[in-house]
What does this fold into?
Amino acid sequence: MGCRIKDKTIKAGPLELYHQSVEKPVLALDALSKLTAQFANKPDFQKLVSTILFTFCGQFSLSDSFSLLQKPHVLDKGTVYIATGKFVKNKILKSLILTSELSSYFLQNRTPTSVTTLDMQGPCARFQTIFAENNVQVVCPLIYDDKLLGFLGLGPKVTKKPFEPEDIELLGSLISTITPLVVSSYHFYQLSNLAAWHQDILDNVKQGVFVFDNDNRLQKVNTAGLHILKKFDMKLDAASDLIGKQIDDIFPQSIFVDWARRFIKAHVEKKSKINRELVVSAGNTKYFYEASITDISGSSEYATDYIVTLHDISERKWAEKQELKLRKKLERAERM
It folds into this structure.
């Protein structure tokens, strides 16, 4: 005869219940901790937000989520829409904008909230309707320094279970953790674009521009400057190869005779100075340059830096030489 074992209900003890209660927050914070480390050195705005959304989806067992955030560029008042699951192609959610009324509402209601319990009135009422009609379950505002950066929207759980109060509480903790990450990515994006903008300006200057620090190390060089150096060093590939090098390595004595000494002397004397007719040879060809040395003005830490600007006057010198030859030839002809 077979032996029948009665079903037994095993009750979790206090320790097991404790582990179950802390498991979700610990896992979520661990995931965000790794995310922080990943983007600490070079936070990519869109990739960061996408990773945050996927982290939330995994944490709360859902597939649909979206973010509507201000564009990182300070001059652009538009928004960036990033989404997962069915929300990726949702044109209605994608068309939402961060109105002043919406900003005012979220500044007064800062915590993650279930859409069913939102109390949006007046111009904001349409947002609540849109959220409900598009199956958005929870809205999480991202606020920093009393400014609305945007918000995250979460769709339904895969299990169809509602968001419990402890879910909302955990969302609040996670949002407060990720907001500084988003702000950091904003700042990094802005600084990166500002640096690129400055470099673009330099690269559109026809003269060669070299920026040296107070220790005579190269900090920046534009495209025209790189082309000047490449005339005399064919092995030179990119500007990045030059950054951090001493001025006498940029303008070696064997090619640019006495250039480095003159530039340093002008900087030490704190005088804006023009060195005329600096000559350098490449094979049988001589090139002539006019150099301007100017200290960077201002009260920033870079005020000790200085700029060397090189203007190629070779064509003018060659033209003057040809003109002189022609004049002498005419004078000889007149004397005959």
Q: What stands out?
A: The chain is about 45% helix and 20% strand. The CA atoms of residues 118 and 128 lie 7 Å apart. Residues 165-203 form the longest helix (39 residues).
